[in-house]
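Q: Start with the shorter request: fold the first protein.
A: Done. Sequence, then structure:
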Amino acid sequence: MNTCTEHDLLGDKEVPAAAYYGIHALRACKNFAISGTLISSCPSLIRALTEILRPEVLTHPSRPISFSSAD
């Protein structure tokens, strides 16, 4: 597996080169692995998120979806 070394305030960490995430997400998964339950095992949650986000997507189709409360 190809990896790249990323650096943050806590040091260096190897991240898979093909990953769409970086060192912060990698550390978060390690530090906050609460249940080990995958979101794919919760289809009702996925349906609920889709129903909540649908009006936003229909109103602003070219705007990226953001889960940040700062938007």
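Q: Next, the second protein, separately.
A: Sequence, then structure:
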Amino acid sequence: MPGDPQNAADGGGSGSGFTRSSGMNPGGFGSDGRYGTALAVYAALFAGLLGAAFYYAKAGRLRINESRRGLLISLLLTAGLCLKLAAAPWISGYRGDIRFFTTWAKEAAHGLGSFYENSSSDYPPLYIYILYATGKIVTLPQIEPFFLTLIKLPSIIADAVTAWLLYKAASRRLPFETAILIAGFYMFNPAVLINATFWGQVDSFFTMIVVAAVLAVTRRKLGWGAFFLTLSILMKPQGIIYSPVLLFALLRTGKLGPWLKAAAIAAVTTVIVALPFSAGKNPRWLYQLYSGTVNEYPYASVNAFNLFGLLGANYENSSSIYLLFSYHVWSLIFIAAATLLSGWYYLSSRSAAFASLSALLLISGVFTFSSSMHERYLFPAAALALLAYVYFQDKRLLWMAFGFSATIFLNTYAVYYGYTSRDGHVGFLLFFSALINIALCILLVKVMHDRSRRPNALSLEAALPSGAAVSLAPGRVPLTECSSIPRTCFLVPELPLLFFLK
């Protein structure tokens, strides 16, 4: 998979865990090593400034004129886009991945029907459409010099879209000052910046689809949830990790109709996306593509700062025995546990908003305790933690957003700049980040346990009938849950909330 070619170049470390790999050479698979210090300084400044901003917002000392709010969020997202687009051409990216994407874009432009026969790609079909468009655009002589920026552009735009989705969700439940800080948190997050603008990877695009799917489920739009979840799987096999969230929501309905509708939407979406690639192929070609991708790296860990990495099993075969079982069997046990816990708490609660917590537990639990994990697989956790905070306004979830952002950044930074090795040595970055990820997973289970025990916890937005419109009084709403929703209007203590049906 793209992002994985560094694996062929990681064997040159001295064993310290902080030695640049042999891939760090001009023309090699890794990055060129530039701007590492500047990026580290940026990350430190970001953490300090964002922490101060949230502190002042909580203390009520950050006030923004209401008439300027629309302009401010537009300026924030535009500034983020301009920053990333200005930096993108100067940063060569992770060279192995950039070469793959560049080659695939050119091959896709020659025709989707023959793409998989003529390329080395093991990516599912969805993102090939983006590469197809890129390959077509770059055929214009005046555009060709900007090929690198075009490769990065879809993910950079996806960063802004995800920040906007988080802002829209937050603006309905939180003070504007907090909502815009959440958008800024994601848009300027160093973990997000290094992935698309530096590395040139597409996890931002994938995360945008996952966030859209989870938002749809929290609003009980299960048809849309099935659509976006199917798109996520058609982009990356990791999308399967989030499928239990939709299954839990369907189980809660207790009806056959939503199951049939979701299955039909998933099937039609898959056929439409895959059809242009299917001419002359075995009907099972898509299954074989996924099967080959999933089995491509049979290792306990692939540079992931997780439990198996902490145990010194980086690039150790997943069939190797640790204690009673192989790493692969331990992985299956942990995946089952994460799925069961996620489902138990989701179904025990009465809040559709629990989908955000379930999705967060699934990705953080699978990444932290599963085999074959790559350094970037945890990437959606930062956005999902922010989304969960929006719904539940639990400070622990905000700390998780900070914590996951930090470990995602450190893991990506270490691999991008070559501070990893295959010899099983556990360096400080790996030790520190893996422990934080384990602690955050435990804390998340505690948060879900606490929240699921609250009776009659219904998300206000999820409880509204389909087609209902929400009108908020000038004051913002600190509560996101209540026990019942009347048909016309009611008062939340201290702040008026008016709900009008169309």
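Q: Describe the second briefly.
A: The longest strand covers residues 495-501. The radius of gyration is 23 Å.
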